[in-house]
């Protein structure tokens, strides 16, 4: 227990798996935590300071299953093993304890075991640091570095207060490593705590920027980082912190990491966490993968391909040439049906080479990892041969083909020759080297497995040589193997003492041994151990060769993943009827026959009516200059008619197009969207004291404060969570702000029909509505978006469909009739007609005039020089003058 407490003290914050024979045992508070988390029995073992010591344990052979559950619950585990032979401990004295030490810290972001990882999901550890000084509120720069040690991926980037949350949501790390002093910033801590990642505070020394470059250079064995690119100080600091944490948790083992690659934030569409959740890109609102966009359209057949596709979908590009490069690859496979299907069959059998390589490099691999690399290299070569038969390959596929050709084919053949067909999970079990690979090993196995047959053959040879049919070779625990013959027939043996050594005389029999028999006995006794040792030597040699060829293997693995994604997207496009989008630098957003990919598939599975496709055009009017910005569609219509689906499908089409996928539409022309915003649906945050309406306002505020002309904004039912005129006022002001200030392309769904009047005053605001048909008091939803405005919400008909009691429905009709009659006498529209536009609001209250009206207006005009004004400034000035005139007239 003294040893346990010493090791536990050196690893605070981790559950200590303390190796005791065939079990990992946990003691004290660790045992209490683990027994609750794992549902295993809590017992006791001995006493400490007069109190029973709580204890529980898990079998070593099943440890991965228990680790998976603990890691999933957010725990960290320190694995403590024996680090010396028990025989050595006995030499020090009978009371000596076998030396033990922690060989690995298991954390959510440092997993490599196949059973602990999701094949199709990356497992990122992200280190986050802040440039010296500043805080989240004052826009400080942040350095990010994220590593997946299971594949070797290593990326760095820079962010700021406005984009940090979106960048973290895109990367979606399993574990977040931050300097502990950053958590003193309340705003930063609140943002971090909202992430699903496990938080690991560490001393700020791990992020020392002055030594960051040297740490990275030492790790990658280079004198300078110039060959890897140019990095900011914050990025280098984050990268050094990530490496330091990996080295700390891996206890000296070095995962085969790629050199750090810089990802510029401007090269990807920025999607904040709320928008990701609202659009259900990677998970549904309930947190499930099933039902998300990713789940609906992922047709990849390899784990690496699925991870790459998820990464592309999470971070759509804004680089038009790279988008076109991806689309070209999909287009190629779409036109090469036979090749696509042939490669798809190969890819289905391709193992996860990157993760197998990482396990071998970290000394956690087994024979099956070697076999996976052998199969993967063979698959890479086969696919490269098929691609080589085609001319004019598009850029992405040609690059992949060249990387596949560089796969170490000779090494793959050597692995195939060395490994047996049936392989154990662990190398310590032996039996994984194929028969015939090494004659010495085959002989040892024969001795181990066929010792009786070898002895019988020796007995037969001696009996024939000496002419003694009664000669036997026997075994007992005292003498071991010996030759026995009747005393009367022992003369032939006693006459040759140099060869036959007398061991024992019995009543009527004599026993002898020979040098050959002694050597054979020794070989038989140690054959199993020697065979295993020889197999382990072969494993280590092969693993070393694999690690030496790691760069080429990883290149081939990346190429297979890229081919899988392009192939899968072509398969998706063909099966679902997707078309190639046109993506350029304009502000266009024209969709013909657009569909929602998830809803469309759900309708098909349910055997219901086919999905109703709809058009959308949010780009500038024909003949307008690009800087005049896109349009906003104001969409009215009843609930359940499909407004939210229409909003979401257009956002998803933009995401798919810029991720490099064909899209669910007859045609699509999309000018690059740099930021995507969505406020759809209702949710609360009661833990932080936020009502549904407060959450809605916080998300709307983020949109109005950050959206720009290249953004795409999706807003649904803004202002419905408060009183009617409050909500109407907020929605109206938000539309004006989007139109006049943000100048974004947008879709704005509302039940405030009064807002449709704004289209007469805002030139880029377009009214659209969802068609419905009334039939015998019921409403039929046609799900078709057309230009125009709805005059009714049909809420009572929807309530009837939902099953409200008939009495409630009829009472609602009566109340509605009275309210509509009252509104006809005092229409809300008349109030709106008298209100000025958002752009004309006075900057401050206008004082009462102290001079004649004409003089004041004249002075204001004298201060305006039209030649120095932009069209927008001139318009603002005109509205300000009109507002000033109205104010002065009102006040006399």
Automatic annotation (TrEMBL):
Function: This protein is involved in the repair of mismatches in DNA. It is possible that it carries out the mismatch recognition step. This protein has a weak ATPase activity.
GO cellular component, one term: cytosol
Lineage: superkingdom: Bacteria
One Gene Ontology term of the molecular function aspect: ATP binding
Residue ranges the record marks as coiled coil: 434-461
PANTHER family in the record: DNA MISMATCH REPAIR PROTEIN MSH1, MITOCHONDRIAL, DNA MISMATCH REPAIR PROTEIN MUTS FAMILY MEMBER
Gene Ontology BP terms: mismatch repair
Domain DNA mismatch repair proteins mutS family: from-to ranges: 711-727
InterPro entries according to UniProt: DNA_mismatch_repair_MutS, DNA_mismatch_repair_MutS-lik_N, DNA_mismatch_repair_MutS/MSH, DNA_mismatch_repair_MutS_C, DNA_mismatch_repair_MutS_clamp, DNA_mismatch_repair_MutS_core, DNA_mismatch_repair_MutS_N, DNA_mismatch_repair_MutS_sf
List of residues binding ATP: 637-644
Designated gene of the protein: mutS
Protein keywords: ATP-binding, Coiled coil, DNA damage, DNA repair, DNA-binding, Nucleotide-binding
Signal sequence region: none
Similarity comment: family membership: Belongs to the DNA mismatch repair MutS family.
SUPFAM superfamilies (alphabetical): DNA repair protein MutS, domain I, DNA repair protein MutS, domain II, DNA repair protein MutS, domain III, P-loop containing nucleoside triphosphate hydrolases
Protein name, UniProt field: DNA mismatch repair protein MutS
Alphabetical list of Pfam families matching this protein: MutS_I, MutS_II, MutS_III, MutS_IV, MutS_V
């Amino acid at each position: 227990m003294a040893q346990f407490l010493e090791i536990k003290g050196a690893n605070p914050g981790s559950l200590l798996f303390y190796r005791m024979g065939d079990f990992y045992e946990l003691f004290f508070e660790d045992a209490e935590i683990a027994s609750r988390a794992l549902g295993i029995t809590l017992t006791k073992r001995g006493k400490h300071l007069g109190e029973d010591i709580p204890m529980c344990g898990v079998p070593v052979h099943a440890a991965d299953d228990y680790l998976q559950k603990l890691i999933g619950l957010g725990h960290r585990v320190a694995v403590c093993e024996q680090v010396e032979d028990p025989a050595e401990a006995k030499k020090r004295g009978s009371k000596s304890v076998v030396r033990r030490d922690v060989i690995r810290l298991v954390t959510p972001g440092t997993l490599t075991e196949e059973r602990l990882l999701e094949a199709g999901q990356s497992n990122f550890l992200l280190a986050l640091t802040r440039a010296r000084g500043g805080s989240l509120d004052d826009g400080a720069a942040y350095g990010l570095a994220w590593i997946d040690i299971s594949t070797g991926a290593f990326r760095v980037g820079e962010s700021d207060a406005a984009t940090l949350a979106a960048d973290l949501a895109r990367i979606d790390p399993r574990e977040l490593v931050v300097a502990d002093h950053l958590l003193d910033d309340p705003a930063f801590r609140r943002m971090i705590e909202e992430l699903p990642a496990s938080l690991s505070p560490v001393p700020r020394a791990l992020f020392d920027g002055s030594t960051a470059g040297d740490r990275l250079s030492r790790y990658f064995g280079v004198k300078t980082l110039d060959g890897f690119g140019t990095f900011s100080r914050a990025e280098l600091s984050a990268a050094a912190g990530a490496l330091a944490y990996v080295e700390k948790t891996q206890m000296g083992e070095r995962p085969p990491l790629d050199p750090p690659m810089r990802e510029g934030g401007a090269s990807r569409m920025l999607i904040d966490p709320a928008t990701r959740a609202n659009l259900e890109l990677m998970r549904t609102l309930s947190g499930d993968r099933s039902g998300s966009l990713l789940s609906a359209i992922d047709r990849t057949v390899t784990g690496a391909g699925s991870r790459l596709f998820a990464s592309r979908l999470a971070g759509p590009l804004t680089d038009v040439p790279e988008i076109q490069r991806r689309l070209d690859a999909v287009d190629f496979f779409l036109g090469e049906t036979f090749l696509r299907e042939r490669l798809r069959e190969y890819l289905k059998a391709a193992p996860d080479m990157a993760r197998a390589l990482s396990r071998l490099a970290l000394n956690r691999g087994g024979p099956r990892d070697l076999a996976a690399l052998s199969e993967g290299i063979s698959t890479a070569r086969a696919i490269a041969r098929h691609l080589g038969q085609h001319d004019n390959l598009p850029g992405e596929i040609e690059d992949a083909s060249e990387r596949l050709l560089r796969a170490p084919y000779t090494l793959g053949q050597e692995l195939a020759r060395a490994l047996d067909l049936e392989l154990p999970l662990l190398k310590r079990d032996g039996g994984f080297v194929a028969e015939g690979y090494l004659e010495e090993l085959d002989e040892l196995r024969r001795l181990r497995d066929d010792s009786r047959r070898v002895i019988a053959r020796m007995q037969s040879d001696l009996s024939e040589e000496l002419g003694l049919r009664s000669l036997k070779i026997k075994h007992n625990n005292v003498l071991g193997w010996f030759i026995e013959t009747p005393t009367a027939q022992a003369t032939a043996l006693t006459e040759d003492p140099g060869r036959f050594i007398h061991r024992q005389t019995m009543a009527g029999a004599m026993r002898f041994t020979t040098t050959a028999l002694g050597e054979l006995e020794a070989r038989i006794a140690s054959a199993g151990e020697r065979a295993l040792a020889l197999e382990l030597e072969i494993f280590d040699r092969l693993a070393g060769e694999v690690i030496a060829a790691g760069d080429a293997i990883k290149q081939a693995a990346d190429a297979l993943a890229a081919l899988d994604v392009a192939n899968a997207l072509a398969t998706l496009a063909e099966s679902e009827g997707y078309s190639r989008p046109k993506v350029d630098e304009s502000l266009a957003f024209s969709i013909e026959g657009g569909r929602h990919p998830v809803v469309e598939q759900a309708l098909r599975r349910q055997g219901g009516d086919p999905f109703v496709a709809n058009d959308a055009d949010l780009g500038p009017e024909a003949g307008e200059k690009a800087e005049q910005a896109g349009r906003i569609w104001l969409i009215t219509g009843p609930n359940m008619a499909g407004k939210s689906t229409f909003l979401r499908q257009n956002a998803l089409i933009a995401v798919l197009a810029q991720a490099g996928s064909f899209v669910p539409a007859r045609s699509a022309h999309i000018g690059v969207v740099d930021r995507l915003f969505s406020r759809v649906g209702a949710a609360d945050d009661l833990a932080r004291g936020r009502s549904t309406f407060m959450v809605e306002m916080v998300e709307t505020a983020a949109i109005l404060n950050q959206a720009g002309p290249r953004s795409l904004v999706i807003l649904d039912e803004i202002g419905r969570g408060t009183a009617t005129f409050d909500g109407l006022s907020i929605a109206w002001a938000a539309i004006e702000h989007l139109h006049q200030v943000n100048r974004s392309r947008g879709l704005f769904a509302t039940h405030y029909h009064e807002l449709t009047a704004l289209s007469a005053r805002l030139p880029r605001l377009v009214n659209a509505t969802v068609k419905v048909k009334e039939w015998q008091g019921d409403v039929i939803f046609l799900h078709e978006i057309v230009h125009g405005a709805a005059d009714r919400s049909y809420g009572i008909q929807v309530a009837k469909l939902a099953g409200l009691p008939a009495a409630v429905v009829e009472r609602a009709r009566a109340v509605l009739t009275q309210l509509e009659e009252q509104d006809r006498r005092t229409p809300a529209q008349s109030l709106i007609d008298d209100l000025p536009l958002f752009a004309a609001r006075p900057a401050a209250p206008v004082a009462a005039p102290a001079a004649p009206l004409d003089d004041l207006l004249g002075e204001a005009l004298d201060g305006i020089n039209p030649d120095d004004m932009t069209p927008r400034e001139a318009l603002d000035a005109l509205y300000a003058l009109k507002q000033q005139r109205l104010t002065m007239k009102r006040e006399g």
